[in-house]
Specification:
There is one protein chain. This protein is α+β, with helices and mostly antiparallel strands. A hairpin with a 5-residue loop joins β25 and β26. The chain has three domains: 88 residues, SH3 type barrels; 281 residues, Alpha-Beta Complex (Fumarylacetoacetate hydrolase, domain 2), CATH 3.90.850; 33 residues, no CATH class.
Length: 440
């Protein structure tokens, strides 16, 4: 029990202690630094522990210190928050606590490489039925290895960052068309950040020695762009425009009571993927669209475990480094209200999702806001929280298409000076327009 005045059902008690990076205005640390959340406050670890590693603007330096150090620091923080008899510690801790309402949260770590998996059998089966009706929904390799692809780490953004509707090629009746995605979707996922890197393959049993913590992910997807570009090499522009992550990194030690056995695997995985223990995690996700609860995906149903994903990701000798990220892929359960994306919830747009306010969605509209949250079991029937990852869709930006965008010259849309050959009124002369369109 903590001496802090926390509600008994707080999702952010001493059993949790998720890490984040914060800064503030007057009376708060101005430069970003590392803290842990306790209740509705942020504990400044630089002040509380007097360790300069927590004065860094990301978790990377601390994560690189390895599991022994992670456990030591967690024990130190727990002691400070529970040892009421040590009055001087309590006074020091109280001086290092800041209300969350007054802090600004930052991306918690500097992102290295990014891999996204496809680890839910229910999601993969639904997608297979949608994309390959009448055929076997799972590809022949699906139950033999965790399928994944390399994403774009440079577009991983913090929760709350607006998500701009992407442009791209979309399939059409007589060939591709170009424009903003018309089938924009969310994907409720769980992410894992590598703390201690490795230059050699990581065995399934070595997972806790390398992965620092767990967080929430929304891997936004443009389904029309994806459908056109994914064969034969898989997702590209349909995924690379934005991936949102939550600001809180829940350490693995906080999830000991959430360990569960994964679903039965048939056929038996190859030896390097053998995972006979409690490698699954009993995380309960919730997805809200414009404030309305639309899905409750259960992470416990995931076919491939986080440890198996990491083992497969490195089995070929690929190295990992501090800050590398991998995500689970869409989390979906067997029930309709457990599907983790609109592609499944609206069954490819043929069964629009009706919201409590009477509106309906096949895919996301401009202005829509998606929030993904999660909890996990803790000791004594309690639960711990992951916070949330939120993103709002904003309209597509103007882009160059045959010299013009939405009827306006490119340089006007982007507030640039007109090029040579353009008149002061902003209209391009015929010769310049022809040249921009590949004509002479």
């Amino acid at each position: 029990m903590t001496w802090l005045d926390l509600p008994p059902d707080s999702l952010f008690g001493v059993a949790n202690l998720p890490y984040g990076v914060f800064s503030g205005a007057d009376g708060y640390p101005r430069a970003p630094r590392v803290g842990v959340r306790i209740g509705d406050s942020m504990l400044d670890l630089l002040s509380a522990l007097a360790d300069p590693v927590f004065g860094e603007p990301s978790l990377n330096a601390f994560m690189a210190q390895g599991r022994t150090r992670w456990s030591e620091v967690r024990a130190q923080i727990t002691g400070l928050l529970t040892d009421e008899s040590a009055g001087r510690h309590r006074r020091a801790v109280e001086a290092a606590l800041y209300p969350l309402s007054g802090v600004r949260l930052h991306l918690p770590f500097a992102v290295g490489d990014y891999v996204d998996f496809y680890a839910s059998e229910h999601h993969a089966t639904n997608v297979g039925q949608l994309f390959r009706p009448g055929a076997e929904p799972l590809t022949p390799n699906w139950k033999h290895l965790p399928i994944g692809y390399h994403g774009r780490s440079g577009t991983i953004v913090l929760s709350g960052t607006p998500v701009t509707r992407p442009h791209g090629q979309r399939p059409g009746d007589s060939g591709p068309t170009f424009g903003p995605s018309r089938r924009l979707d969310f994907e409720a996922e769980v992410g894992f950040v590598v703390g201690a890197g490795s230059s050699s393959p990581v065995n399934v049993g070595e997972f806790p020695e390398h992965v620092f913590g767990v967080f929430l992910v929304n891997d936004w997807s443009a389904r029309d762009i994806q459908a056109w570009e994914s064969v034969p090499l898989g997702p590209f522009l349909a995924k690379s425009f934005a991936t949102s992550i939550s600001p809180w990194i829940v350490p693995l030690d906080a999830l000991e009571h959430g360990r569960v056995s994964p679903p039965p695997r048939d056929p038996e995985p190859l030896p390097y993927l053998a995972d006979t223990g409690q490698g699954g995690l009993d995380l309960a996700l919730e997805v809200r669209l414009n404030g309305h609860l639309v899905s409750r995906p259960p992470f416990a149903t995931m076919y491939w475990t986080p440890a198996q994903m990491l083992a497969h990701m490195t089995v070929n000798g690929a190295s990992t480094r501090t800050g590398d990220v991998y995500a689970s892929g869409t989390v979906s359960g067997p029930l309709k209200d457990q599907r983790g994306c609109l592609l499944e919830l609206s069954w490819g747009g043929t069964e629009p999702l009706v919201l409590p306010d009477g509106s309906s969605r096949s895919f996301l509209e401009d202005g829509d806001e998606v929030t993904i949250s999660a909890t996990a079991p803790a000791a004594g029937g309690a639960r711990i929280g992951f916070g949330a990852v939120t993103g709002r869709i904003v309209p597509a930006r103007a882009v160059l298409a045959a010299g013009r965008v939405s009827g306006r010259p490119y340089w006007l849309s982007h507030r640039q000076p007109p090029p040579i050959g353009a008149s002061s009124c902003g209209r391009a002369c015929p010769r310049w327009s022809a040249a921009r369109q590949g004509r002479s």
